[in-house]
Design brief:
5-stranded mixed beta sheet; 293 residues; binds S-adenosylmethionine; Rossmann fold; 8-stranded mixed beta sheet
Length: 293
């Protein structure tokens, strides 16, 4: 196996990892600064305490569970930009802000590949607020976006509208990922590109349990059935801390056996501005065809 890569999403101006340490991170999303728990940040912050104290909101334990503690007024929702993408950010009770900034390098990578083909078909599973879907549609793909959460799909539609993409440019599916892929396989539907960000644990629309270690191998073997004969890419990311990039490398290599291309894998990292340290957020593996293809 090749060495693992560190993939840094450093093309942002609307997002910044300002500082990190003592199990927390200080981030800027547009003009709004927030403090969130960060299990990886087992070092010490470099910015003065007053910088942390002046954040707009802090996500923390509050007696009845975790939630945001507002420290300064900020808009309930606001628009952010990355390259040609525009999208809506807001603080959710699940500590998310509607964007995982470390994914931006993957949007760039997938978009570059999509531009090489005429209207490739791309499936985005566990697609959340749909920034990968919108980036793929902007690059010219016919996108199928799937998430089990109706609220997440509604948010993704807001992001499609924020980018002024035509309403038919993305097919929206609210369903269980495994159930949908099985159905597509039965119908003979094929995709040139597959993006997936499977969680450690999740639920489908009819309560189907998604448990990474059991469900992920099943999903991958179904994905083989829906890949077109000349695939453009497969991208897997996950935030399940028990999973490893080496495991993703091995499973994706197995999935793509017989196709001429290569797999790379590693960690998705952000660089903090305070001291330049890299913060690992998640892992990935991705396959693309050999360049002459
Ligand atoms: C970690 S989020 C994905 C983040 C997103 N890819 C991004 O980078 O912005 C996981 C998503 O998986 C969805 N999900 C969980 N279980 C699912 C299932 N069984 N089928 C489909 N979607 C599911 C959740 O609703 C959630 O939106």
């Amino acid at each position: 196996m090749q060495t693992l890569d560190l993939l840094i999403s450093d093309g942002w101006s609307d997002y910044e990892l300002l500082d990190s340490g003592v199990g927390r991170k200080l981030e800027r999303f547009g003009a709004v600064t927030v403090v969130r728990p960060e299990a990886q940040a087992l070092w010490n912050p470099r910015l003065p305490q007053q910088d942390w104290d002046s954040a707009h909101a802090v996500f923390e334990y509050q007696g009845k569970g975790e939630n945001w503690r507002e420290q300064r007024a900020h808009p309930a929702q606001w628009t952010m930009r990355y390259a040609d993408l525009q999208f809506v950010a807001r603080l959710t009770p699940f500590r998310h802000v509607g964007v995982f900034p470390e994914q931006a390098a993957q949007w760039d990578w997938a978009s570059d590949l999509i531009r090489r083909r005429a209207k490739p078909r791309v499936l985005n599973l566990f697609a959340y607020t749909g920034l990968a879907s919108v980036a793929a549609a902007q690059a010219g793909a016919q996108v199928t976006h799937l998430d089990a959460s109706k609220a997440a799909v509604e948010w993704a539609k807001e992001n499609q509208a924020a980018c002024a993409l035509p309403s038919g440019s993305i097919r929206w599916i609210i369903d269980d990922a495994l159930k949908f892929v099985r159905r597509e396989a039965r119908r003979g539907v094929q995709y040139d590109g597959i993006i997936m960000d499977p969680p450690a644990f999740g639920r489908g629309t009819q309560g189907q349990v998604w448990q990474f270690s059991e469900s992920f191998p099943m999903l991958l073997s179904e994905c083989r059935q829906i890949l077109s004969p000349n695939p453009l890419f497969v991208l897997i990311t996950t935030y399940d801390i028990r999973a490893s990039a080496t495991m993703l490398y091995n499973t994706l290599s197995e999935l793509m056996t017989g196709f001429a291309g290569s797999v790379t894998a590693g960690e998705q990292v952000l660089r903090e501005t305070s001291a330049g340290r890299l913060l690992s957020t998640s892992i990935y593996a991705r396959w693309s065809p050999d360049p002459e293809q």
